[in-house]
Amino acid sequence: MKRWFNILGERLNRISSLKLTFLAILSALIVGALIIVVSDIDNLRDGDVIGALSTVGSAYWALVIGSFGSLRAISNTINSSTPLILCGVSVAIAFKAGLFNIGATGQMLAGGMTALWVGFAMDGPGIIQVPLAIIAGAVGGALFGAIPGVLKARTGAHEVITTIMLNNIMAFLILWLLKTDLFQREDRTDPISKLVSTQGRLPRLFGFLDGRADLIAHIGFIVAIGAVLAYWWFLKYSTTGFEFRAYGLNADAATYAGMHVKRLTVLSMTFAGGFAGLAGAAEVLGTYGYASQNFAGNIGFDAIAIALLGQSTPFGTLIAAILFGALQAGGRQMQTNSDVPIDLIIVLRALIVMFIAAPLLVKTIWRTKNASITAGQTFRGWGS
Amino acid sequence: MSATEIASPMLSLEQRKRSRNVGLSLIFLALVSAFFLSARPGDAGFKLVESFTLVLPAQPFAQALAVVLGALGAVQLYRGFGKWTNAMLAFATAMFVVGFLAWATSGGSFNLTGMLQDTVTRSVPITLGAIAGILCERSGIINIAIEGQLLGGAFAGAVLGSLYGPWVGVLGAMAMGVGLSALLAVFAIRFRVDQVIVGFAINFFALGLTSFLSQRVLTPYPEYNIVKPFTPYKVPLLSDIPVIGVVLFTQTYFVYFSIVAVVVTTWFMYRTRWGLRTRAIGEYPQAAGTLGVDVLKLRYRNVWIAGAVAGLGGAWWPIGTVGRFDQNITNGRGFIALAAVIFGRWHPVGALTAALVFGLAEAIQLKMSNLDTGIPSEFLLMAPYVVTLIVVAGFVGRSRAPKAAGQVYDASK
Asked: Are A262 and A153 a contacting pair, CB within 8 Å?
């Protein structure tokens, strides 16, 4: 086994960073396979190693088929990726300014609720109502996201504490909102909201294909791509974006150069909240058509891993989010086809992040040479 | 020139602002007491021991509270409390919590001692998680993986505890914590990966792996997931003291473990060579390295010990309370512990205080759902977090982290 590794390693001798990424994903899959085999107690008790290995095969095949194997799978991947892209950008833009946004979950809930309100309260033509609802989502998220920014700028309260607290506050606030007459569905007693009117729903991405109701991807994906482009433009061409980068890299130098650090703190958290709010709007208006207590799920936390994996760059974040979304979509297929629990994909995500972040490790395992080793620091640390 | 400046001319702008924020926050709390907490007439009964219930008239108490808090706020704004500020704040916050409870229970009664006991119990995983965070970060390694270490500890504690009894479960949980923290150490120190990235990856890894194994192994084989939890141990003599005996000395071993952890960590950190060196490599590793401290070795050791402490905290779930493991049983407590580290300013005793505040928040939540206050229960449930937000923004303010936390150490620099 080790000899094969060496041979494979030598083949990939002159290695580029793309190959490094490939090897990182391969390493993650191998470790994942080990975990599947070791936990296959029934087969291992019978000494049926072949049976255990075939479980791995069918699980991974289902991952591929479920994420890119058909138009439906691709649509599922797009659908899972949409909120991940938006929340990923939310976390990334905060990282760029040296802030740690753990509050994407709360901001997403806030944005989703404001978008939802416009979505069922208004009864206009879709061409007006949909953009309005999306903008409302962004504004709701931005206002909620601005709170930790303002608190940090004015009092120095650490955003890690304040965003976690605001997540908890929002979780209870939404539980209350969903039980008020304004939001609660008429015939229900549990916390679940009214339905968004049909015109208020985000149009389906593959709406032009008649009779394919199973293609659930919606134009929220286009919004997400737009957000990535906006983030890219903002960093590269706008003055404020330049200040963000300068502040994130060296706060002291930025202050000395006359940049208004407090303004940047508030702005970056506001933008972060806005992007997360868009994610909430996309989920409520596109995927579900209503809001429940936990429509944000774990997306806010997944987004942190995504931003870290994408090193907070616009396109890195996009690719990482699509990778995570594909794993999500494939994971559901895997659970159905091979009764390997979908939680395996959380392990795979963790391993991919780890291996990609540790090029030195991948290099050691695969005995490659000439790998360019970049070890940096995305987040400025705990200091003010 | 105001009195504050004369008293201590060295106060920076930052400190003066903080001092002003403290005063304003106190006045805010006074207003809340005056207009909100005093709105409900009736007596609040706090049951202290079986035979004695303290009866507090809610309305007059809230009015008195408003006057006291307002006065404290005014004094704070006018000249400050100097070295008594922290004591005054603790007093004011405690009184406000009592006022809040009196408001919520007015017209009824509830078991205060039981709630305080619950507070101490629930603070255990947060305290131990925060100690783990402090041990790492004081030595210059950011530990975001507390959540993962707690979760891993809970899983190992449940499985090994089911197979070989609770004490083996505790040891297994600590070993699992060490394993996960060794992963953090190797990646952060040996492979120089960004510490936040690897920390987060470990969180995901632990969450994914324990959920995966729980579904794939524990669900079909439930005999691996049934622990006999520790029962409360009464400390001889001390547990006979009224109220305090129940709150502090009639608890499972985990509470005693966490108190020991706080004391020992404080002593080690501030009274031993090991602690001095740890703090040095967290602030300025190059200087410590030049003077002959083996920076990397010391960091490895700190991270390992931190893992054992966090794993112990994780064992609290299966072995200290429910007797079993469930998917994502820690449910974000590791992040609360992270907040406690910052809230407590990287000091073990500060972290313990913060953990008790969060423990109180959880304990109050349980009680609140049973009380009829006329206000939607969701608002009462979020109140502790709002208070934390106000406290952090108004009282704590900017906190200073160990300077080298998060940075790769390169001896050649």
From this structure: yes
Coil, strand, or helix at residue B250?
Answer: strand
Q: Distance between CA atoms of A244 and A261, rounded to whole angstroms?
A: 9
Overall size of chain B counted in residues: 413
In the structure encoding, which two tokens stand for residue A342, read together? 């979908």
**Do A326 and B197 touch, CB atoms closer than 8 A?**
no
Rounded to 5°, the CA angle B346-B348-B351 comes to: 75
The CA–CA distances, whole Å, from A288 to A193, A217, B376 equal 11, 11, 27
Q: What is the DSSP string of A127-194?
A: HHHHHHHHHHHHHHHHHHHHHHHHHHHHH---HHHHHHHHHHHHHHHHHHHTTSTTTB-TT--SSBBP
Contact B389 A165 (CB under 8 A): yes
* Least confident span in A151-160, A185-194, A345-354, B368-377: B368-377
A188 C-beta neighbours (distance < 10 Å), count: 12
- Are A205 and A82 a contacting pair, CB within 8 Å? no
More confident residue, B350 or A14: B350
Find out whether B172 and A332 touch, Cβ atoms under 8 Å.
no
Taking each helix axis from N to C end, the angle separating A261-281 and A220-237, rounded to the nearest 10 degrees, works out to: 160
Task: HSE, CB side, 13 Å, CA atoms: give it for residue A25.
Answer: 11
List, in order, residues 6 or more apart from A327 with CB less than 8 Å away: A63, A67, A345, A348, A349
Helix (H) or strand (E) holding B56: strand B52-57
- Give the domain ranges of chain B: 3-112, 121-359
The model's pLDDT over A329-362, given as tens digits with 9 standing for 90+, comes to: 999 999 888 878 889 999 998 898 888 888 778 7
Residue indicated by tokens 């001889």 = B236
The radius of gyration computed from the CA coordinates of chain A, to the nearest angstrom, equals 22
Closest CA to B322 of B235, B245, B254: B254
Alpha-carbon distance of B207 to B154, in angstroms, equals: 11
Query: Cα–Cα distance between A59 and B216 in angstroms, integer?
Result: 14
What's the pLDDT tens digit per position in B3-18? 444 444 455 676 777 7
Of all residues in chain A, the one with the smallest CA distance to B358 is: A165
Please write the tens of the pLDDT for every residue from A87-105: 999 999 998 888 889 899 9
Q: Is B85 exposed, middle or buried (0-12, 13-18, 19+ CB in 10 A)?
A: middle
Residue B53 gets the label, from left (phi > 0), alpha (psi -120 to 50) or beta, of beta
Task: For residue B359, count other CB atoms closer than 10 A to its CB.
Answer: 23
Nearest CA in chain B to A358: B193
| A182–B contact, CB cutoff 8 A | no
Which of A176, A341, A358 has the CB atom closest to B212's CB atom? Answer: A341
Taking the domains of chain A in order of start, what are their residue ranges? 74-328
Q: Is the dihedral of CA B231, B235, B241, B245 positive or negative?
A: negative
Chain-chain contact of A343 with B193 (C-beta, under 8 angstroms)? no
